[in-house]
Amino acid sequence: MRRRLKRQRYFKKKVRKIEMSISPISLAFKKCKEEKRPALLTYTVAGDNTKKKSLEILNAISKHVDICEIGFPHNTPIADGGQIQTSAYRAIKNGIKIKDVFQIVKDFKKSKTPKPVILMGYYNMIYQYGENKFLKKCQQVGVNGLIVVDLPYPENKNFAKKCKKKKITFIQLLSPTTSKNRMKKIVKDSDDMLYYISMLSTTGGKLKVSPKKILENYQKIKKINKKKNCVIGFGITEKTISKLKLADGLVVGSAICKEISKNLAKRQNPVTNVSNMVKRLKNKII
């Protein structure tokens, strides 16, 4: 009996050690796979429409999501469509700064249901802030991953190595135009998560490609390395999400930003309605 208890304690400690060595992002995907469903990732702009409201939205939706993407508001975005640009404009208009974004993440991580956080932004902001200083701050506040839209492979290799040293997942991007050879190199060098852009468009565009075709392209990535988690983003809404359930994860951003805008226009509190929307999205993939 004593021996069995010792053995059980030993295995529990071993499992705990293994889990501690795995990134929170990978653990989130692992949990979803055990539940036989894709991970739900949401994107919101930090500080939209205020710092307080932005944090309230994160806390409300974290009950239903697996990973939270938080965007740095930017006045000259490359990949962001109209809905996200509108959200970013509101945040900038309200005076949101980089330090405020970090504070939102820090406060969110103190909440009852914190989820892994991926910050999404553009390299010029990181460059101006200073790479090392930026990554140190990310580590301090609890950032788990980074997406840097305008820092492509292989130019991002040095920065990705710096991220790895700080135990921050650097997420590589793939698109329908990525060649087979390039795709192999990116997948090989990538961390534990990849992001597949479903179509040639900015965010929030109407899905121009059939879900069947998107999944065909997606499977080309998975064939290279099945173990690496790959999410699909761009054009995902309540109407399309259930058709892409075979992916490891699905990202919804513009639809959420649109819902925030709609609520603000009607002078309604967006927290409840956005939370209900995310709950509906989750129900469509379980």
Question: Helices, strands, pairings?
Answer:
Blueprint: H1 2-21, H2 24-34, E1 39-45, H3 51-61, E2 67-71, H4 82-93, H5 98-109, E3 117-121, H6 123-129, H7 131-141, E4 145-148, H8 157-165, E5 169-170, E6 172-174, H9 180-189, E7 193-197, H10 211-224, E8 229-233, E9 249-252, H11 254-265, H12 270-283
Parallel strand pairs: 1-2, 1-9, 2-3, 3-4, 4-5, 6-7, 7-8, 8-9
Helix pairs in contact: 3-5, 3-12, 4-11, 5-7, 11-12
Query: Low-confidence runs (pLDDT<50, min 5 residues)?
Result: none
What is the overall shape?
A: globular
CATH superfamily: Aldolase class I
Number of domains: 1
* CATH architecture verdict: Alpha-Beta Barrel
Helix amount: 40-55%
Number of helices: 12
Distance between the termini: 40 Å
Order of helices and strands: HHEHEHHEHHEHEEHEHEEHH
CATH class wording: Alpha Beta
Tally of DSSP β-strands: 9
**How much of the residues is beta strand, in percent?**
5-15%
Briefly note the CATH topology name: TIM Barrel
Q: Which strand order spans the largest sheet, edge to edge or round the barrel?
A: 5-4-3-2-1-9-8-7-6
- Report the biggest beta sheet as strand number plus sense, adding barrel if it closes: 9 strands, parallel
Protein structure class:
alpha/beta
Radius of gyration: 19 Å
Mean pLDDT, to the nearest integer, reads 91
